[in-house]
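Before the break, one more example. Copy the sequence into your notebook; we will annotate it together after we see the structure.
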Amino acid sequence: MARNISDSLKGKKRSRESDAEPEPEPESGDIDQILSLEENLTFSDTLVALRIMREQFPQIDKPIQPFILRSQLYSSVEDRTQVDRDLETLRREKVLRIFKLNTGQDDHAIMFFDDYLCQVDRVVKRLEGEKERDILEVFKWFRSHVIDFKLEPSIEHQELCALLSLGGKVKDEHISLLMNSGLLTRQLIDPNIYWFAIPNIGSVLKGLSQGRKEVLSLLNRRRYKEMMLAPLEKKRLRFSSLDMRFHLRDLIGSGHLKTVQIPTGIVVRVSKD
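Here is what the structure looks like once it is written out:
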């Protein structure tokens, strides 16, 4: 499986083969039209699920690249053990990065490596003109020496400084800038360890939490705490910029909701405690 994933990702990895023709990407509108949850709730392949959900990422008014929650993969690919194995392979091959989210729960976001690099570049572009040029050099060091080498979700302070020093003399203000820009967050348990983070994700995480509560509240108010998937997917949320499809995949994968196939379609039901 790992070899198949590696072979199928040649076009996705950062343009390392110049002679490889890029695969045509379906337009978002086409994806939305064709791939409803009713017809495509599960996939047989982790990579296919990742690519589809990346294309289906909601269009939100935030400068953030598409990401997929691990729980969403669990709802879309039946073999969770295989999902974890595939993610580990893709992470080691620098196809994607995995981030621990600050939601108070065991949430992890998955972002394709190229998308994450674009997110880093956006941070630098935003800070140009605000910060002196020499202090901005830390982003170049971070991109060249840290991201490419340290593929795990976290990094110790000493290792971070050692890797950054491959680019230049590291100062406390360099670390502070990386944290203030949203690329690093300190672990609460051990402040000597940093989580790699996705910049500008704060308000999206607030919407994620509120959207989860809104969907569960909607279903809990119904007599049998259930609803057909097709009409449920079309409902709009008031408190989350993420769409219903995003939240349903998340809540099904995390076990808060379950699905039941009946002759007329798929029923989404609140899981019993």
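Confidence is low (pLDDT under 50) at residues 8-34. The beta strands are 68-69, 96-100, 108-112, 154-156, 184-186, 193-196, 226-228, 257-262, 265-270. Try to locate both features in your own notes.
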